[in-house]
UniProtKB/TrEMBL annotation:
GO molecular function: (R)-2-hydroxyglutarate dehydrogenase activity; FAD binding; metal ion binding
Reactions the enzyme catalyzes: (R)-2-hydroxyglutarate + A = 2-oxoglutarate + AH2
Domain FAD-binding PCMH-type: 37-216
Name this polypeptide is given: D-2-hydroxyglutarate dehydrogenase
Phylogenetic placement of the source organism: Bacteria, Pseudomonadati, Pseudomonadota, Gammaproteobacteria, Pseudomonadales
Length: 464
């Protein structure tokens, strides 16, 4: 089939105008937030119904055409990047929600629903969707499910998979499966719903998800604490978790704070300069809870773990304190950072970070390194910033050359090379540092069952 005939047939599967092949669209929809791979899709297709998704998948099987799912394209693993003439399937037009079920605390979403849209819908019903991160204003639920997104509230609420009550998926063969049917208790064999969560579209496409909601938190309050060194952060975490039910516990370095302060639109938390900072959040439901937080702060100061701190007194101050953490990724993005999203168990974090920091300091003496992350769940974000005068390809080559040492350390601690960003293309060649060869072979066997022709996001997670 000629290329023009191939595209003409694709046009018949969706609504008029819902196949794009212009250069700007191919560039925009063929990539995500990673900058390591050049996008090169052959077309972008926008289904509006489950039936259209099935038709696209069956067409792709007939013609052996690879498909790449596209959501908000905010991913950091290149799981949504099309580099080899694939057809990108964008879910931008499958963005509807059903009515909120206030009894079961659930809502049905199409995959193109924006995370913030779901959060706002829950809020309108005095409920709460707790999976939250800096890209919530543009990321989509389908992408969140595909990468099992985490974010800033994992210490209390867990990952995306904790909030998926049921899924409808189109497999790589074009079959429509309804998984779990929104049940809380269901002991009827394999839970295929969980298999599709975190699969990065390699088994099939999510076309509908029933998302769980929670009660709305009361009087959320944040504290930002400055510490004299990183080792002090863990006893601070232990002290506060012993007294309060934390909804978040984040950390960032002085370099990360400096980047946010340079924007000039967020006030500093306090005047004392500290090498590291912890941001914690809790529900100040009573005056007693607030007093407990202040007493714990004073205890941490007495122990020498905290130098200075501030507690939010209003919703605006709460928002400003969170901006200190949430704006970091955006403020360093223009420096083309090389990102590592790694994790170990919480107890191992101090020793692990010291080893990784020593490797990075020795390997990149002239590079600026910015640390931040979800310290309360053992997830660290290592960001190496590209010098202004260094070519991008040379910079990435230098960073990649040290991956072996970094990931060997991750393996030594039985950690993960990708805590919440997924594997995609970026981490694909390092999967063996977190998964055994036997596990990888079972994963490949599962893909062959759901996607026998290998058309679903090929080359992601592991090589074809």
């Amino acid at each position: 089939m000629t290329h023009s005939a191939f595209l003409e047939e694709l046009h018949t599967l969706v609504d008029p105008g819902k196949v794009l092949t212009d250069a700007d669209s191919l560039e925009a929809y063929g990539k995500d937030w990673t900058k390591q791979f050049a996008p090169a899709p052959s077309a972008i297709v926008f289904p509006k119904t489950t039936e259209q998704v099935q038709a696209i998948v069956r067409w792709a099987n007939t013609h052996k055409v690879a498909l790449v799912p596209s959501g908000g394209r905010t991913g950091l693993s290149a799981a949504a990047v099309a580099t080899n003439g694939e057809v990108v399937v964008s879910f931008d037009y499958m963005n509807k929600t059903g009515a909120v079920n206030t009894v079961d605390r659930t809502v049905v979403c199409q995959p193109g629903v924006i995370t913030k849209q779901l959060q706002n819908l829950a809020k309108d019903h005095d409920l709460y969707y707790p999976v939250d991160f800096a890209s919530s204003g543009s990321s989509q639920i389908g992408g969140n499910i595909g990468t099992n997104a985490g974010g800033i509230k994992v210490i209390r609420y867990g990952m995306t998979r904790n909030w998926v009550a049921g899924l409808k998926v189109v497999t790589g063969k074009g079959d429509l499966l309804e998984l779990n049917k929104d049940l809380i208790k269901n002991a009827t064999g394999y839970d295929l719903r969980q298999l599709f969560i975190g699969a990065e579209g390699t088994l099939g496409f999510v076309v509908e998800a029933t998302m769980r909601l929670d009660r709305a938190p009361k009087n959320l309050t944040a504290m930002v604490l400055g510490t004299p060194d990183f080792d002090s952060i863990m006893p601070v975490l232990h002290a506060f978790r012993g007294k309060l039910d934390l909804t978040a516990f984040e950390f960032f370095s002085d370099k990360a704070l400096a980047k946010v302060m340079a924007r000039g639109d967020v006030p500093p938390p306090f005047t004392t300069e500290c090498p590291f900072y912890a941001l914690l959040e809790f529900e100040a439901t009573t005056e007693q809870v607030s007093n407990e937080a202040l007493a714990t702060f004073e205890h941490c100061v007495e122990q020498g773990w905290v130098i200075d701190g501030v507690m939010s007194q209003s919703e605006q101050q709460l928002a400003n304190l969170w901006k200190l953490r949430e704006y970091i990724s955006e403020t360093i993005s223009h420096r083309t950072p090389y990102k590592n999203d790694i994790s170990v168990t919480v107890a191992q974090v101090p020793a692990f970070l010291k080893e990784i920091d020593a490797i990075v300091s020795e390997s990149y003496p002239d590079f600026e390194v910015v640390w931040y992350g979800h310290i309360g769940d053992g997830n660290l974000h290592l960001n190496i910033l590209k010098p202004e005068d260094l070519d991008k390809e040379a910079f990435f080559a230098k960073c990649v050359s040290v991956n072996k040492a970094v990931f060997e350390t991750v393996q030594k601690y039985n950690g993960s090379i990708s805590a919440e960003h997924g594997v995609g293309l970026v981490k694909r060649d390092y999967l063996n540092y977190s998964r055994s060869e036997a596990e990888i072979q079972y994963m490949k066997a599962l893909k062959a069952v759901f996607d026998p022709n290998g058309i679903m996001n090929p080359g992601k997670i592991f090589a074809v």
